Amino acid sequence: MSTSGPWVPLQSITGRALVAPVTWLAVTLINGSYYICAVSEYVPVHYYGAAPNVTAAERSRILAAFPCGQLVPPELARARDEVILLLRYQSQVAGWLLIAVVVITVFLSYCLASCFSPLSFLHFRYWNSYVHNEQELFDEATEQHSRLYAMQNVRKFFGFVPGSENVKEIRIPSLREWQAISGLAFLKRVDKEHYDYSLLHDWALKERASGKYLRIDEDPGIITQL
């Protein structure tokens, strides 16, 4: 029975996707500027002895201008300063609470994962090391395998592989073959088990390696037809 299941990759992807937005939100709340702009018009200013005899719409407009000191009437300057301090404190408390919740959640997640894991601590460390090394080796094998596979298709089209020594002849692709490998390449399904990865790959699977060959140590006008 698998110890990871489908939830481990999902949790890993979700966690990495949330790092940037949660970090931005926490920094924004600690700074307080956005919170002040968003909430200032809803603050009950009568607590500060500032309740001008204006309509509700006019009061909301004045409160919305609190983040911009130069737009606030002089009689509301003291109330404005106290409101800005209050909102900044609220924003910073919310930011630190968010950081605390994230830290506690991550800590509890690791603790619960360790508690319910059938692996011992050292075995779990070994498993992490194995997965890491397996991924690195798989990436290296993928790079080498795809390169060798691509080399076969390139050799079939040009008659040689770049970097080869003592190349004695090259293949001269026809106009039809150039057209066959040109254009937009899409992943094409060949059958239930295989795909064509490119137009050159598709051409190499369908066409026989025939055509015109030129020996590079001969006169360019001498072309061998196969």
- What is the rounded Rg? 34 Å
- Helical proportion, percent range: 55-70%
The number of distinct β-strands equals: 5
Structural class: mainly alpha
Mean pLDDT: 81
Order of helices and strands: HHHHHEHEEHEE
Approximate shape: elongated
Q: Give the distance, in angstroms, between the N- and C-terminal Cα atoms.
A: 57 Å
Features:
single chain; 226 residues; mainly alpha; two-stranded antiparallel sheet; 7 helices; 5 strands; 6% strand; elongated
Description:
The protein contains 7 helices and 5 strands. It has helices at residues 7-31, 33-39, 56-64, 77-116, 121-158, 175-181, 199-206, and strands at residues 169-172, 188-189, 195-196, 212-215, 224-225. The model has no long low-confidence stretch (mean pLDDT 81). Helix content is 59%, strand content 6%. Helix 5 crosses helix 7. By secondary structure, it is mainly α. It is elongated, with a radius of gyration of 34 Å. The two termini are 57 Å apart.
